[in-house]
Amino acid sequence: MDTCREGGAAETSISNFTSSCNLLDLDQEIKCKALAAFRKSNAGGGLAKKRDVQEWLCCAIYCELQRVKIKDMLDAKHRPDETKNVAEKARTSCWNLSLTKLLTAFKVNICRFMRRMKQWNMMAKNEMVFQQEIDDLQRRLSITLIIRNYYQRAFDHLFVLPEEGTENTESRSLYQSLYEFGWVLFLTIRNELPGFATLNLVNGCQVLICTLNLLYVNALEVGNPEVINMSFEGLPSTWGNDDFDDTLLLKYSALKAICSLIPELPIKGVHVMQKAFFHKALVVLFLDQSLLGNDTFKREIVKEGLLDVNLGTLNRNYTNHVSDISEIDERVLLCRKEAAPAINQPKTPSRYKHLHKLPNAMPSEITEALDAEDVDVISSLDKRLCVMARVFAKSSRDFLSTEEADACFMMSCRLYYHFLQKITSSELKLKPHLKMVQLLKNRTLHSTLIACFLELAMHIQGVRVEELKFPFILKCYALDAYEFQKILEVVVRHDTGLLGRDLTRHLNAVEIECLGSLIFRNDSLLWKVLSTQRCLPSCNEVQAKGKENAARSRAEPRPGLSICLRKFYSLANLRLLNLCQSLALMKYFNKIWYIAEHSFIQHCGYLLKQRELDQLLICAIHLHGRVTRKPLSFHQILQHYRCQPHARSQVYRLVSLGKFRSGNIIEFYNKIYIKRMLKFAQDLRKATVTVPRSVLHEKPPQSNQISFNISVSTKNLRYPSGTSIKILKTKPDSGVETLVEPDQLIITPLKRTNSAKELGPLPYPNIFKRQCIQSEI
């Protein structure tokens, strides 16, 4: 009997089970065993009669993942020769999934999950180790909640949130970033320490005080008095004065004053923690470049430019750490929302209140610039906005109430009027021959602007419904991604600090999604623009400077195309760099990039059409392995790809094969990719490539991570511009070995397997780490 088939009394109740599992990319065996366990426990139909079937199924999935994890750990414990493979198994096993992600997919609250698990363990007659895991998790979470409360109170003593107002936008953004950075830094350092720091409240508070001291002194270095509490007794007496010597902060400590914020915590224990454990953990973070700054004095970690970089790195590292079914993502404790997603009445967060002060009507600078006979254009625009409001309300009515939709659209209109005034003024200065009425009649400008700000408005109002995430807004107004990405550049260019870091980062993510896949859809206007080109311009052609370059001149009637392609190549370059670094292929990066670029430009972008950038990068790495006779299987490459922050399973599971058909990445490679690239690959096997040593760098530039969508220059791109390629001509009958034909390729099934050796060692999962510590004590 196929246990995965729906049936019985629970058929209707578990209809959402498969979709929840698909969100997690779970193995089929896990799903089947979980369903079988549920049906066994529900033999009498008691569970299915209740409305909480999803909760029981979530418990069943959790137990099956724990069962696989325990088996892997025991195998490693009893086979010393396999100990070195534990890290690889941890990265590739099905239990490489945070409990937070599991609960989110099944929409189960963490507290309710723990109560259900106690009942489930009794019904399923699970071993004691399962309940022990839940008890440990509950104790750790309780401790962290107490520490979170201490953190919030102490932070309020050290820092102040600047008052609302457009002029305070950057300071308010800095305050929010410091708040998030301090908590993630605490969680990261605590995880670097032995288990007592996690299981003991006193030790956890000691780590917190050390973390706050580090954060506070580094924030003083920034020198922004708007976010510093000037009445805190730990503040240096002359700080903020013109004659204050910043070098005094290199060895300054406010540890005693910060420790006094938790009266019941002895200062002596904090000093011991700082010297014996905290400092060593901090050194490790600097050594592996999880923190950038002055590693001698442990300063400059939150200065301008590095705060966002360090916060991003810590978040990525922490995400990897909690990719374990025994781990809960404790970053969510800073939020006041439940762990399970919910749609609430959107209320504008305090840091965005200043946006309500923006005009909610057409600015006078625009209306006064119109001639008397052109005033009707304003009424036409008003009617257009009314239509767009109705379309948005109708498209989102299944997920937003009328009030919620109206609030989002009103916020988008305020931003629209503000930026429309800035954009039109700038255009008229650059092009004096234009008239205001000509700009106001540009339908694409207004549609894309409203869509852009509706996307931001939903983000501001906290709308986190999956169905309303980008590119919903493009579908709502039938907008083209190629046209839409142009307006993002325009908005960022005309922003003077109003949007702040958070909204700029959101626009950056939207732009990357456009450049990585959406602009290559079949119906994209990009293909119409490229139809006037003989071929897709190469990386060097779009990056080249000077009108004497013939290839560049082909793109310059189309400045929008040139900007778009520069950004696309920069994104491709950055992603390939990261993937090659993960796979330890940096010495071959030049050749792999050459293969990838050829796949982009050949037949005017044929392989990109209806596909994604990452798909061609993965195929380029695999093809390079075959060319150099150092093959990497697809599942080896995908193990490293899954660790990339932008990775999605649909990239390698759903690849367009043409004529409305799709398949996995291997089918695409065999049926389409290699047929188009075979001749090129055969020539490349016989090629000699010379690359200047100064061109390539083994680390992507940090500046790209800060503001990818603001500017792209040639120095940001690690492309071998000085490459000289010589194809050695050979006769067809020369006997030179060629690549295997597509039908001769060995296809490896797409499943989780051991990762490549280059992955390097990872720490053991916490289940064993904690048990070992407890036994030693």
UniProtKB/TrEMBL annotation:
The keyword Aminoacyl-tRNA synthetase does not apply. Residues 68-218 form the Retinoblastoma-associated protein N-terminal domain. It comes from the Eukaryota. It is found in: Nucleus. Residues 348-530 form the Retinoblastoma-associated protein A-box domain. InterPro entries: Cyclin-like_sf, RB_A, RB_B, RB_fam, RB_N. GO terms for cellular component: chromatin; nucleus; transcription regulator complex. It holds the Pfam family RB_A. One of its GO terms (molecular function) is RNA polymerase II transcription regulatory region sequence-specific DNA binding. GO terms for biological process: cell differentiation; negative regulation of G1/S transition of mitotic cell cycle; regulation of transcription by RNA polymerase II. Gene3D superfamilies: 1.10.472.140, Cyclin-like. Keywords: Cell cycle, Nucleus, Repressor, Transcription, Transcription regulation. Belongs to the retinoblastoma protein (RB) family. This is Retinoblastoma family protein. It comes from Drosophila madeirensis (Fruit fly).
